[in-house]
Amino acid sequence: MDNDTSGGYLAWGVDHIAYGPVELPALVSWIKQGRVTAESWVFKENNGTWTRAADLPELKLLFKSKHAPAAEAGASTHGIQPGSLRRIKMLADVEERLLASLLAYLEVVRVPAFGTVFNRGDHGDALFLVLEGEVRARVMIDGRETTLSTMGVGECFGELAIVDHGPRSADVIANSASVLIKVSAQALRRMFDEAPALAAPFMLALTRVIAQRVRVLTKRYEDSIHFSRTVHGDEA
Fold first, then answer.
1. Domain coordinates in residue numbering, the chain
2. CATH superfamily name and code, 82-219
3. What kind and span of H or E run contains 187?
4. How does pLDDT run across 20-61, given as a tens digit for each residue?
5. Per-residue model confidence as pLDDT tens digits over 112-142
6. φ/ψ (deg, to 5) at 138
7. CA–CA separation, 59 and 69 (whole Å)
């Protein structure tokens, strides 16, 4: 019986998404999280075969000791339910099973009222989604605050930083106690490596957000040009 644990593994998760390739410790972690069960099919790269997880020699003891519990539908991670992610506009159309899988790549950040999420000039490496509360983006000009935008439940911010890792262009402050979902650039890379089928709908949703922001900025620019021409036309 082949008991060689070298090489990588691909696993067909309970959410019907193929994950991997990963090394054995990551596969064990997925089993403990319930993302891979005894009945899940696992591809072993060193011999090129698909096998039920419970039939792999290196995993049998784990399933016997843990009884290979399957992940319950709607199980929570980070203290939040997959369905609560539907509050986020960019995730509203993502399938339920994908939302549950997405939780493994997210961080929950709790910010007290008037707390700082990040400061202007900070290195940007994460996108934030507002799950609860409200935050505002501001800049300080001549010692006075100018609010650029206010983001409530369902909104996101920092989307460009996760793409280009550029410096933050404004401070973001919590107007009230807030719960934010953080998607780091590192987590996004891990998602692409482990579960491209999950990364694809997430990136499509993110692209739509960026496109909408560009349209809004374009409209504001056009309005400012019209206003400027009207004012100068009246003066003439």
1. 9-66, 82-219
2. Jelly Rolls (2.60.120.10)
3. helix 185-194
4. 888 888 888 888 777 888 888 899 888 888 998 888 888 887
5. 999 999 999 999 999 999 999 999 999 998 8
6. -140, 160
7. 14
